[in-house]
Amino acid sequence: MVAAAMAAGCVIGVDLGGTKLLAGAVDERLQVHHRAYRLARTDDTTAVLETILDAVLEAREAVGGDVRAVGLGIPCLIAPETGVAMRCNHLPLVDVPVRDIVADRLGLPVAVDNDANAAMLAEWRHGAARGASDAVLLTLGTGIGGGLVVGGRLVRGARGGAAELGHMVIAAGGLPCPGNCEGRGCLEAYVSGMALGREGLRVAREAPDSALGRALAAGREITGALVTELTHDGDTVAGEVMGHMGERLGIGITTLVNVFDPEVVVVGGGVIAAGELLLGPAREVVARHALRPARDHVRIVPARFGAESGMLGAAVLALELVG
Amino acid sequence: MVAAAMAAGCVIGVDLGGTKLLAGAVDERLQVHHRAYRLARTDDTTAVLETILDAVLEAREAVGGDVRAVGLGIPCLIAPETGVAMRCNHLPLVDVPVRDIVADRLGLPVAVDNDANAAMLAEWRHGAARGASDAVLLTLGTGIGGGLVVGGRLVRGARGGAAELGHMVIAAGGLPCPGNCEGRGCLEAYVSGMALGREGLRVAREAPDSALGRALAAGREITGALVTELTHDGDTVAGEVMGHMGERLGIGITTLVNVFDPEVVVVGGGVIAAGELLLGPAREVVARHALRPARDHVRIVPARFGAESGMLGAAVLALELVG
Fold it and tell me: pLDDT per position in chain A (323 positions), as tens?
């Protein structure tokens, strides 16, 4: 009973990824009272929607049923006015009126936005970019998610397609983009969990005596997460791969600093677990190569909410909807 | 008398470049009633300010003295609230309260902004970006000037340093930036009058039988303007240099489309005299490499006001100041 009383007036934030889903019952102070985890089923639209609903119902029940609204952060291009998912790289949500479907089924107000926008919102309202009028978010997961605040407002672009920061071209004629993109030399090809795994595999072959090389010989898959782990463990070769990725990150941030003159650049996503081993080299590149005075003022910092920024941002969407 | 009557209520817009100055007496319909040209004197601060005042006085006298306000577009970092020029790459205007000095001397309201912001304002209010909520301007002169409109507002950044679009990094580890910048691989190193002259000289040496090669043999300086002229005249080699620069421009615009999802990208400055010979290859790169749906909707168009967009934008600043 106490838990339910404490949770009165909660909202539910849902972060839907390409492979998994996190729903949280969250109060106005952004305290999380319950977390519901699901695998995101990717086979058909109905299954995805049922997974969302199922997780929301679990979270609602856990806080005694008293929920004011639901926020959804989904990895799709969203029509801001209607909450329709127009395009989606990883899930079967194309031309699906997600907002209205979920609202009808739950009988609750529902807000929908892109997952990276939601993460930016969480960091901007309550996290590492709090109080900034101009801020940039890069979430480094398998790929890159981006969020932008310009002049005190979230940037969505003319058709909701803005802030695709992983698709800034940093190497003309470079690597084909691994994302759902026909570009070459995109930041995402050099700075992401995927890129970290690729480079980790390359050096594992070149340096069989390194921890990475031994992991490869032992039959382990060389992933970005493994490179991050071995960097933490002090493996020099893994650390060099991470440091080089930090420099490439710094090149991307240099462009962002020159274009936006932001107060703060927030870096989140799984790869930020490497912390200063990633951010240190990035900061050095920006300090040398970006324009003054922007480079002298900008802060480059890790995200506050880590892997939960998307879920918390979705909760903020819901709070602001009924707020 | 008729001219003076027609010009009642004019403002004066001033575009101050690194080497020359244009002041225009402009009415609310953006008709120009008088143009005053000066060389911008770069030796000391007082001389620059006197040149501005002198040109404004000529324009004011030419329209019978009835002038409501003055707008200044200057190639400096401007403090938006105070009109102080904080940094300036080409002129001795550092920590100079330009707005207040000019206003005191003239007894008129004065608005000051960066010259590229002024050009963006002219194109946005009255030119090629009219009606757009999200627009980008690239002016290709000796270097690159940039302007941004996001969500219906001009973007200045946290400290006035935003929209340095010439300093997006398109080639990590590439050419040292020729601008007043310590970066490498900046767009400006590949797409500008300066880059065009450099590439023109390179191919003139490689192809002595081309028009460019003959110009070099005849002792002409190989400038961006000459390459543009020979491209127009049908010289294949010059056309290839221009086409390659158009492709590099397309790479920069690809980043801008992916970051901003704009309705329109406006390209101005002296190099746009090459027209479709520059924009055609740029559009092809964007159509292949940028993300959908942004690439399918964005228009890539020449500036409407050409070399006068800075002056007209400064006039718009003045018009908006007095309302």
Answer: 344 444 568 999 999 987 789 999 999 999 999 999 999 767 789 999 999 999 999 999 999 999 999 999 998 889 878 999 988 877 889 999 999 999 999 999 999 999 999 999 999 999 999 999 999 999 998 889 999 999 999 999 998 899 999 999 999 999 999 877 899 999 999 999 999 999 999 999 999 999 999 999 999 999 999 999 999 899 999 999 999 999 999 999 999 999 999 999 999 988 888 899 999 999 999 999 999 989 999 999 999 998 899 999 999 999 999 98
ipTM: 0.91
Within 8 A of B190 by CB-CB distance, chain A residues are 172
DSSP at B274: G
**Judging by beta carbons within 10 Å of its beta carbon (0-12, 13-18, 19+), is residue A304 exposed, middle or buried?**
middle
The DSSP symbol for B96 reads B
Chain A to chain B Cβ contacts (< 8 Å): 166
Q: Could you tell me which of B1, B125, B19 has the C-alpha nearest to residue B71?
A: B125
Q: What does each C-alpha distance from B51 to A167, A251, A278, B16 come to in angstroms?
A: 45, 40, 50, 10
**DSSP code of residue B40:** P
d(CA A199, CA A219): 17
Nearest C-alpha of chain A: how many angstroms from B120? Answer: 15
pLDDT in tens, B29-47: 999 999 999 987 677 899 9
The residue of B164, B165, B168, B169 whose CB has the most chain A CBs within 10 angstroms, and thus the best one to mutate to test that interface, is B169
Contacts for A243 with CB less than 8 Å, ≥ 6 apart: A277, A280, A281
Q: How many CB atoms lie within 10 A of CB A281?
A: 19
pLDDT tens-place string over residues B145-177: 999 999 999 999 998 899 999 999 999 999 999
Query: How distant is the alpha carbon of residue A251 from its chain centre?
Result: 19
The H or E element containing residue A259 is helix A236-260
Per-residue tokens: B234: 């049908």
Q: Please tell me whether residue B104 adopts helix, strand or coil conformation.
A: helix
Task: Check A159 against B294: CB less than 8 A apart.
Answer: yes
Which of A148, A255, A286, A292 to mutate to test binding with chain B, by most B CBs within 10 Å of its CB?
Answer: A255
DSSP string, B59-74: HHHHTTT-EEEEEEEE
Contact between chains at A86 and B171 (C-beta distance less than 8 A): no
